[in-house]
Design goal:
434 Repressor (Amino-terminal Domain); mainly alpha; 2 strands
Length: 103
């Protein structure tokens, strides 16, 4: 069973991943900005790794999010669904699954 910390890390990763996609930023672009590879960024997005506070601040600035509020919202969100569906800008009719829990 995931700990409270695991859940918060997953919520935060999902929130940041959804924001990145909504802003049409590539995983490569964001990874380069943070000084990590795409796989590491994917691990952050799916809650498999947690990022440092300085990286979180840099990422929030890139995505035009306020870091404190982003963290607060990740702590207050309702429980995560097993999978979240989003529609991409490229194809608004197609559903794409994002698996915040890595399942």
């Amino acid at each position: 069973m995931p700990t409270e910390l695991d859940v918060i890390i997953r919520r935060l990763g999902l929130r940041l991943e959804l924001t990145r996609r909504m802003q049409k930023r590539s995983r490569q672009e964001v990874a380069e900005h943070l000084g990590v590879n795409k796989q590491t960024l994917g691990n952050y997005a799916h809650g498999r790794s947690s990022m440092t506070i300085p990286r979180l601040i840099v990422l929030c600035r890139l995505l035009k999010l306020e870091p404190g509020r982003t963290l607060q919202e990740a702590c207050m969100d309702p429980p995560l669904p097993t999978k979240a569906r989003i529609r991409t800008v490229k194809d608004p009719t197609a559903d794409h699954l994002i698996d915040p829990c890595g399942v």
